[in-house]
Amino acid sequence: MKSIAFIFFSLMLMACSRNEKTNEVQLAMAIDTMADKAGIESHRSKDENNKGEITFSTIGQLDIMDKDLGIMNVVQAEEEALKMGERWRLPNEAELNVIYEQVAQIKNLSCNYYVGMEEGAEVAEDGSKLKVYLRKSVVSGELISLQTNEEIYSIYGARLVRDHH
Q1: Which tops the pLDDT comparison, 42 or 31?
Q2: Is 113:157 a contact under the CB 8 Å cutoff?
Q3: Which of 22, 71, 119, 147 has the most CB atoms at less than 10 Å from its CB?
Q4: What is this structure's pTM?
Q5: Per-domain residue ranges of the chain
Q6: How far apart (Å, rounded) are the C-alpha atoms in residues 90 and 79?
Q7: Distances in Å between the alpha carbon of 51 and those of 45, 47, 48, 84, 94?
Q8: What distance in Å separates the CA atoms of residue 113 and residue 83, rounded to the nearest whole number?
Q9: Is the pLDDT confidence value at 140 over 50?
């Protein structure tokens, strides 16, 4: 009986110690398969403003980056989105809802809360549209507008989106 338990334990250890690269490839293949079933397409593109390649998934007419921009406050996230160029931006409320609804298929979500931004219809004194900053939980679906400086300058995950063309 002890030898059977030892063999079983040894096999489990060998299975857990497989090459990480193999695991990453298998995980990527599994995610791509799930994405195809959910109507999500995976893409790669060269980014002219940054170094390297950007990978993103498309849901309907929305491109969603496959990696978080980072952990930062919403003002920093907005600035980083502008640096990315190629129409990348923070998601609006409807797009945050898409991310929440497709959380199982979207790659590499590493935070509970993600930030977004809506431009209001009201115009500020300087002629610019007023902005409403949002925070959405991809776990519970809770959505709030960030109103205080404490909320705006707290850190959240940032995942950029753009309209698919």
Answers
A1: 42
A2: yes
A3: 71
A4: 0.68
A5: 38-163
A6: 10
A7: 11, 7, 8, 10, 30
A8: 22
A9: yes
Nearest 10 degrees: Cα torsion 55, 31, 90, 142: -170
Are the C-beta atoms of residues 58 and 164 closer than 8 Å to each other?
A: yes
Q: Alpha-carbon distance 70 to 80, whole Å?
A: 10
Q: Measuring CA to CA, which residue among 14, 142, 137, 131 is closest to residue 79?
A: 131
C-beta separation of 139 from 36 below 8 A: no
CATH class for the domain made up of 38-163: alpha beta
Helix, strand, coil shares, percent, the chain, to 5? 35, 30, 35
Burial 20-42 (b: 16+ CB within 10 A, else e): eeeeeeeeeeebeeebeeeebee
Residue 97 has pLDDT above 60, yes or no: yes
Alpha carbon 32 to chain centroid distance?
15
What SS3 class is residue 76?
helix
**H helix or E strand, kind and range, residue 129:** strand 129-137
